[in-house]
Amino acid sequence: MAVNQASPRVKPPHAGKLQTSGETPPRKMPFLAKLWRDSPLLVMVAPTVIVLLLFTYIPLLGSVIAFMDYVPFLGFTGSDWVGWDNFTSLFQDQAFWHALWNTLQITFLQLLLYFPIPVLLAVFLNTVAMPLAKKFVQSVIYLPHFLSWVIIVALFQQIAGGAGVVNRFLITHGLSPFDVMSDPGTFKLLLTTQAIWKDAGWGTIIFLAAIAAIDQGLYESAVIDGAGAWRRFWHVTLPGMRPIIILLLILRLGDSLTVGFEQILLQRDAVGPGAAEVLDTYVYYNGVIDGSWGTATAAGLLKGIVSLLLVLVANKLAHRLGEEGVYQR
Amino acid sequence: MTSVNRPVWLGKPKPVAIALKGLALILISAVVIFPFLVVVSTSVATKKEIDANGGYLIWPAQISFEAYRQIFDGTQVTRSIVISVGVTVVGTAFSLFCTVLAAYGLSRKGSLFQRGLLTFVLITLLFGPGMIPVYLMVKQLGMLNTYWALIIPGAVSAFNIVIIRGFIQGIPQELFDAARMDGAGEWRILWSIVLPLSRAVVAVVGLFLAVGYWNNYFGPLLYLNDTEMWPLQLVMRSFVLENNITTTATHIPGQIAPPAQSIQMALVVIATIPILCVYPFLTKHMSKGMLTGAIKG
Description:
The complex is a heterodimer. Chain A is built from 17 helices and two strands. Chain A is mostly helical. Chain A folds into two domains: about 1-80, no CATH class; about 85-329, MetI-like (MetI-like fold, Orthogonal Bundle), CATH 1.10.3720.10. Chain A has a two-stranded antiparallel sheet with strand order 1-2. In chain A, α6 (about 95-115) crosses α11 (about 185-210) and α8 packs across α11 (about 185-210). In chain A, about 35% of the residues are buried. Chain B is built from 14 helices and no strands. Chain B has two domains: about 10-75 and about 245-295, no CATH class; about 75-230, Orthogonal Bundle (MetI-like fold), CATH 1.10.3720.10. Helices cover about 70% and strands about 0% of the residues of chain B. Residues about 290-295 of chain B have low confidence and may be disordered. The interface between A and B is large, with 104 and 119 residues.
């Protein structure tokens, strides 16, 4: 999105003003003079350009090892080209399809269970008229967003793990305990719960802002027309939030192939790869751990390209629907 | 006090509604606060009490800071804290240095190569290389097993550049004109005009960067083979999630060693404290910053 925003094809009308304010009109400035004038700016951008070249652009080119039988000892120049072999063996690998399936399942589960919660939470918080209580709850529920996944998983282990608070409670009350932290069957639900605990509060910010932007006059007219709380929510609040809900929903869809990598990596050993292998962990274990550089890079490249396509399509959709939403409002 | 923000047309709320709402607020806060209460309580509890209660405590009757003493005596944890602080400070400084310079360098429309360089930066928002090619690049440059591998590859984010650049472009043009008239060069303008004016936004971006460096655990896992070099997050993972508690603290005779659970939870507390310290500053600015980001990004 930012690409469209920040480098507009059509210059805003005042764009020329920045240049003409100097003593010399820049349009007729010879190249060398311009270079002399702007060289400090170029020097300033240089560190960023170097970092991006080294760690984004050259590695992007380095993705060609997806088409190589890459041997680290031989390097890029010494390794053999193998054409599409890595992709063929990738598609024949059962584990790859399994990882893809797990990834999509987790994405779906999070869309279903995680996504509505910040919306509802924001609507609820907005009905709280006590400023102090509201502020307090807000600062409390934003906090987990800033904690590392190691801490989050440790907290969950302490509360819901085998020797945790919940199980202790179950045992002392004569119920049978269960360890959700190492149960492959419920692992995806556990991931979603953790994601909700960590980020649902933080996610309310953007929806609260959307609600705050709704014209209060609409509520007044609704009340005069005899609308109760539920109808006001349905006919005023929800339509007001619609554009931002659709935007975020579509962006999340565009990001379908990415599910909490650090979060899953931390807990993969506890439940085994059957339940926990996703595309990113598949790449990590095949490449860095097992040394199948070619296949792992092929998987990563494929994921990158599909994600890019999804993001572009989602962007287009969001743009279209966003416009529509504005008109409807 | 209860009806400060309440519009007139809503009428008087029913007592039941107020009670239910209050209950919901308390429940929501409790879901977040309760785990922390357990963690802090367990970290300062005595072995006897933890054993009696089966591994955790909600409210300790006796308080003992033995776990903390042992953590700061033990070579590995103490070292990992120093490492984490160092990587966070140097990393944040380096990231901010690159980001602020690039944001200013790309802020003047029509300067030489500005459009091209901006596109060069922004493309990275859309498409990044996979994990493996970056790893091989870091390896190629001989940065494996150095702290630079944690700092440099991810130092620049186009998103942060966009945020600060947007702010700089909002500074009135007259200020730049006046400074140039007085003979100030670009570096001088950046230092004496842009930086003082954008202190808040730079601080917020810096805090977010610092939280990121502090919380980073996959970077060290990927790039550092030597456990001696591990930062706090990795040591915490090993201690708390994998149960490898290896404090080498000298055991003082006659004193009871702190229980493993206390040491684990004390680590969690220590890893959380820096976040809590910067949290008020984050809350102050973050909703604004996040919204600008959401609209621009």
